[in-house]
Amino acid sequence: MVRGAGSPGADVVVVKLSISRRLSTPSSPATTVARWGRSPPRSRSWFNRAVAISRRTTPDEITAAAAASFDSCSDERLRELLQALVRHLHAFAVEVGLTQAEWDEAIRVLTDTGHITDERRQEFILWSDTLGLSMLVDALAHPEPEGATESTVLGPFYTSGAPLKDYGASLASEPAGDPAWLHGRVLSLEGTPIAGAELDVWQNGDDRLYAVQRPEAPEDHLRGRFLTRGDGTFGFVAVRPVPYTIPDDGPVGAMLGATGRHPWRPAHIHVIVRAASHRTLVTHIFDAASAYLDSDAVFAVKPSLLREFVPRAADDPDRPAGVDGDWFSVESDFVLVPATAG
Q1: What phi, psi does 89 have (nearest 5°)?
Q2: Other CB atoms closer than 10 Å to residue 184's CB: what's the count?
Q3: What's the maximum distance between 2 C-alpha atoms anywhere in the chain?
Q4: CA 270, CA 183: separation in Å to the nearest integer?
Q5: Which of 19, 285, 288, 292 could form an S-S bond across to 269 if both were Cys, CB 3.0 to 4.6 Å?
Q6: Whose CA is closest to 298, among 329, 265, 273?
Q7: Which residues pair with 285 in a beta bridge?
Q8: Which helix (H) or strand (E) holds 211?
Q9: pLDDT tens digits, the chain, 342 residues: what are they?
Q10: Phi-psi region for residue 155, left (φ > 0), alpha (ψ -120 to 50) or beta?
Q11: Selection from 260, 261, 285 nearest residue 272 by Cα
């Protein structure tokens, strides 16, 4: 039924019909804005998406995401190492406010480190050594009991397969410095002599170089392995070592120069001692009279490893066979820890 104008309720019907048509008729954006005086209300889901888009990612969220990426790693220790590495590496960047230019430079240095590393030179170990990390890892790995010989770093110049030499033999295959009779015993923690222990020895000569740094040097020069006798004693002719610089013509050397540090190491002889049922010992014998004992570039000096090189005359009756002229003697015992200790 349609009511005419002037009929009771006619105005109400017209208004309702008008509103119904407007709501059912599509409107242009301009008309919609004009009607509401602003954009129409949006849904709650649209609002949440807008907030998510406009909110900025924080450094903590980046770190958390990177660490969480290893959550599914099935190797528990590997997962622990990588997640801790991420956290500490990111914390370092935040602490120092690492810039893009500094990050770029770090990548360049790491690339150069890889390029200069080969079978004769390990620049990555030099980084570890000169930042003190090698000695820290060694200390964590070898909390030795009182009385045991202290360990120190392996260094970058060790090569396996040194020739086995007899008691009293010389390390040097050619003249390399002042002869030094190095002798002593290998003992258990209880003081019992250990027969058949192996000493794997290498050192530099008076030219400050290790054999691996000289391609023309004889393969067995200034390196060798010796076995202890039945009473645990050993003896061989080394040369008195001299201070030397770690390789400083690469990225590590550039770091030392830029920071006012020197590349010198005090005079020392490297020894690895191996014996059945005992922990392998990697250590040094330092010349107690050497320069740089208080500023070793790789932080490897330990007071318990200092030894006196005692001068001996050419006519000394204890002069070792094959030695001419003046010489030195140095005594050093090595005390090993049982393999089951700790």
Answers
A1: -65, -45
A2: 18
A3: 145
A4: 14
A5: 285
A6: 265
A7: 269
A8: none
A9: 444 444 444 444 443 444 444 444 555 555 544 454 555 555 666 556 666 667 899 999 999 999 999 999 999 999 999 999 999 999 999 999 999 999 999 999 999 999 999 987 889 999 999 999 999 999 999 888 999 999 999 887 888 999 999 999 999 989 889 999 999 999 999 999 999 999 999 999 999 999 888 888 888 899 999 999 999 999 999 999 999 999 999 999 999 999 999 999 999 999 999 999 999 999 999 999 999 999 999 999 999 999 999 999 999 999 999 899 999 999 999 999 999 865
A10: left
A11: 285
State the CB neighbour count (10 A cutoff) for residue 122: 19
The Cα 171–Cα 203 span in angstroms is 9
| Amino acid (one-letter) located at 80 | E
Q: Give me 195's structure tokens.
A: 């027969």
**Quick one: tokens of 90?**
């990111």
How far is residue 243's CA from residue 262's CA, in Å, rounded to a whole number?
A: 12
Write out 84-116 in H/E/C secondary structure.
HHHHHHHHHHHHHCCCHHHHHHHHHHHHHHHHH
With contact defined as beta carbons under 8 Å apart, do 196 and 252 qualify? no
The H or E element spanning position 181 is strand 179-188
- Residue 158: CB atoms within 10 Å: 18
Which one-letter amino acid corresponds to residue 155? G
Threshold 0.90, pTM exceeds: no
* CA 92-79-96 angle, 5° bins: 5
| Cβ(185)–Cβ(228) below 8 Å | yes
User: Cα-atom radius of gyration of the chain, to the nearest Å?
Assistant: 37
CA pair distance 144, 319, nearest whole angstrom: 36
